[in-house]
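Now for a sample.
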Amino acid sequence: MKSLPRDLGDHTFIDIGSGKSRTLLLASRYPFAGIIGVEFARELVDIARSNIERFRDPSQKCRALSVVEADAAAYDFPEAPLVVYFYNPFSKDVFDIVLKNLVSSLERRPRDCFIVYGSSSHRAIDWARPAIHETGIFRQLPVPAMPGFRDAIRTIDYAVFQVQAAA
């Protein structure tokens, strides 16, 4: 979040492959217009919705949280400015489809969009980063190294991209 602009109050945060909602709950500490989790597994959607319902945090700034049970490859992105978050969500083949859908959405309705891609699994960032660059509409933003965070025993790598002025 420190790599993104401070004023994202008109942006919708979307976690693709949101699991049980941990990232959604953490994102709610920032003043987003809305926060949406997209999750394929019904069991995880049910857990996420329960977690959101029970969540109480005095630092919460966004209370418009929801989880959509959907295949990410068929998800229609909202027409609001976006922060789209990926953390090891799926294979390259599925990522390519989701990325193509995001780009199509941005071409139909140009708007601000950030992609935050985190990876600790199988060097997924090594294929995600070039795929995002190859769209021709995103530029990578400089980000500091992720200090000391690990997923199990692997270091987390991440990259942040912003749509260029005219999508």
Q: What stands out?
A: The helical segments are 22-27, 42-54, 92-108, 125-134. The first helix runs from residue 22 to 27. The chain has four helices and nine strands. The mean pLDDT is 90.
